[in-house]
Amino acid sequence: MHRRVSILGATGSVGASTLDLMDQAQAAGSATFEVEVVTGDQNIALLAQQARRWNAKLAVTADPSRLEDLRDALAGSGVEAAAGADAVVDAARRPVDWTMCSIVGAAGLRSAWAAAGQGGVLALANKESLVCCGPALMARVKAAGGRLIPVDSEHSAIFQVFPAEAPERVARIILTASGGPFRQATLARMAAVTPREAVAHPNWSMGAKISVDSATMANKGLEMIEAAYLFGLPGDKIDVVVHPESIIHSLVEMVDGSTLAQMGPPDMRTPIACALSWPDRLAWPAPKLDLATLGRLTFEAPDETRFPALALARQALGAGGAVPAVFNAANEVAARAFLDGKLGFLNIAAVVAETMQRAEGAGVRFGADNACDAALAVDAEARKIADRVVASLAAAA
Ligand code: NAD
Ligand code: MG
Predict the structure, then answer these.
(1) DSSP letters for 136-156
(2) From the CB of 268, is ligand 1 less than 6 Å away?
């Protein structure tokens, strides 16, 4: 297998896992890669190291003030350097076989949209762009002759067992959730949670924002919306079960009562490998499951009282239109404020609920052509509202 690839968000957790997997697959002799673009933001040293290692054509930092630093770090390498949000989007437009979209948050939407228009495979880790304008993004990939393959482990699991040719065979899908670090914590304990405690996930090593989302279970809320768009299912066919070991990555229940599950160790390189070679399978020295050593797998219902983000996401999905983008923007603002020490942990969901309420009636609908800009306009409006809600909660504290 040979692939010409671009990695948007190469310096993050998923981006670095992607490059590591490519290294291991190449060393194992099962694939060769050419890298067109790597992008990052503040970690210029890592971005330059990645660009040099893969002899990328272009390295882009999203921060325009870091262009000189990047040029210095790339001196003599022959790798072109660029900077700024527009440069990231331009880079995403370059034709390649495969693009990994692993920028975090709605900041990844414009580049995912650009990559979706160029006809290759869109490996999508950036769930926020699907939440903000999923149906239009999927239509855009299809119109360009490309294919969207989910990277989120739950969606990769469902993608691998979902009968896409006959969706009427599916009764429901069941997303598994680890439950995060506060699965068994009391509300009083959760009220006092610090950012350091929230980003210490029991099973997965991830970026700070998605780690906070896992702790509040807003991540599972975003994933319900992501799944609805990816697999064309209504909210009432999407369930969540807490599975603390993160071995079963999700399940598809058929109308005849048979349920198909996909399993694997909690390592993002496996769903990334799936997206890289689908429908083929990429051989690499993958960590393997040892069920006898694991001994048992456990399950429990999610507690929507302690984790109200789940019900809020369901509400956003039910409302449709621009409301999922509002849910996402409010959650991003609140998670950031929590990480910055400006907001208590339990107030993250409170900000989302209040922002959704205040934004009600904004009622923006997306057209197929302007969906990305329309979603970004909603995102910007919702962020302003959420900032005000954060400020009022901080003042009241
Ligand atoms: P991360 O914080 O580790 O990395 C984020 C990347 O985005 C970095 O390369 C960073 O430089 C870049 N970035 C940040 N702000 C940017 C901006 N404004 N413009 C352009 N680039 C910017 O995040 P992550 O954990 O790798 O997650 C990336 C995405 O993948 C998220 O959408 C997350 O929900 C999703 N995801 C992650 C995991 C995981 O295991 N980490 C699993 C499933 C899905
Ligand atoms: Mg996931």
Answers:
(1) HHHHHHHHTT-EEEE-SHHHH
(2) yes
Closest residue by Cα to atom 9, ligand 1, is: 9
What is the reported pLDDT for 47? 98
Domain span including residue 378: 320-397
pTM score above 0.90: yes
Is 249's C-beta closer than 6 angstroms to any atom of ligand 1?
Answer: no
Q: Return the amino acid letter for 13.
A: S
Residues 362, 291 within the same domain: no
Q: Does the beta carbon of 107 sit less than 6 angstroms from any atom of ligand 1?
A: yes
Assess if residue 183 is contained within a domain: yes
- Residue 309 located in a structural domain: no
> How far apart (Å, rounded) are the C-alpha atoms in residues 155 and 176?
10
* Ligand 1 centroid – CA 108 distance (Å): 8
* CB of residue 14 inside a 6 A radius of ligand 1: yes
Phi-psi map region of 296: left, alpha, beta (phi>0 left; psi -120 to 50 alpha): beta
> Could you read off the pLDDT of 365-394 as tens digits, one per residue?
555 556 899 999 999 999 999 999 999 998
Tell whether 213 and 352 lie within a shared domain: no
Q: Indicate the number of domains in the chain.
A: 3
- 3-state secondary structure (DSSP) of residue 248: strand
Instruction: State which of 50, 101, 102, 333 you would mutate to test the pocket of ligand 1, scoring each by most atoms of that ligand within 8 A of its C-beta.
Output: 102
pLDDT in tens, 220-262: 999 999 999 999 999 999 999 999 999 999 999 999 999 999 9
